[in-house]
Amino acid sequence: MLERQKTLLPQSASAVLEVNGLTVRFGALVAVNDVSFVAQRGHITSVIGPNGAGKSTLFNLISGAIRPSAGSVVFNGVDITGKSPTALMHAGLSRSFQITNLFFELSVYENLRLASQVLEPAGRAILSIGRSTLALERVDELIAQFRLADKAHELAGYLSHGEQRRLEIAVCLSSRPKLLLLDEPTQGMSHADTEETGDMIKSLAGDVSILLVEHDVGLVMKLSDHVIVMNQGAKLAEGLPAEVRANPAVQAAYFGQGKHHA
Ligand SMILES: Nc1ncnc2c1ncn2[C@@H]1O[C@H](COP(=O)(O)OP(=O)(O)O)[C@@H](O)[C@H]1O
Ligand SMILES: [Mg+2]
């Protein structure tokens, strides 16, 4: 027993997220069914599986949007099960949505500034723009990092689809999260935009740990340190990208379908 604890310690010391037996029921449907996994700090951990497998619901459970029927979520060693999305954002967890979450009628700059305002200490959050120094610094960093300088004063609604999805990732990073949950960030993107966004996600990992739902299986295999496969609410398999790809159960349930969807 002691030996076992010893070997487990280094792993849990580098875990940013531990999901244990997570389950949620919607009436008769068990949308997420006893799912457990560990995401390592600085890594890209991807969740794939057919449409309806429960991936977005899993993200909703981890990010506090919905409460589980059973199970727990441990973030940085702290049990965060059932905490509100706002509390989790302040704890360092940030998520993007499968559906765009930008203010289309505001500029790129204003979208980033609103999101960065959480960096200001409580009570200063409603300071005038010019005095929100922490927020403004963060906006400048993100505009440089995401090469948005020439688009900064365009309305978000006028950006291309690819630019909007990248702006969403920048918005999610405003709060300087430790863990970033990205739900299908390349959905609807052209091949070139998908490649570029993939490279960008790869370059973010390390500073921030990433949990990714992605429908482009090729991209997942290229980007991920660890892949979790879901099917009908349950975890079907997990491992290194090559291990998952070679797993007969995964091939039968997923790759074999001819529908390469996450
Ligand atoms: N709020 C909800 N109420 C009822 N059923 C839901 C709800 N959210 C998701 N579902 C169902 O749960 C299943 C998993 O959905 P989802 O997590 O969106 O799958 P994925 O993201 O893998 O495509 C689907 O059958 C979906 O219809
Ligand atoms: Mg989904």
What does this entry look like structurally?
- This protein is of the alpha/beta class and 262 residues long.
- The protein folds into two domains: 15-92 and 178-262, Rossmann fold (3-Layer(aba) Sandwich), CATH 3.40.50; 103-176, no CATH class.
- It has ten helices and ten strands.
- The strands form two sheets. A six-stranded mixed beta sheet has the order 6-7-8-3-9-10, with helices on both faces. The protein has a four-stranded antiparallel beta sheet with strand order 2-1-4-5.
- α4 (108-116) packs across α5.
- The radius of gyration is 19 Å and the shape is globular.
- The protein starts with a helix and ends in a 9-residue tail after the last helix.
- Mean pLDDT is 88; it is low at 1-11 and 258-262.
- The structure holds adenosine-5'-diphosphate and magnesium ion.
- Residues 55-56, 98 line the site of magnesium ion.
Radius of gyration, Cα only, in angstroms?
Answer: 19 Å
Bound molecules: adenosine-5'-diphosphate, magnesium ion
Number of strands: 10
What composes the largest sheet? 6 strands, mixed
Which regions have little confidence, pLDDT < 50, spanning 5+ residues? Answer: 1-11, 258-262
Oligomer: single chain
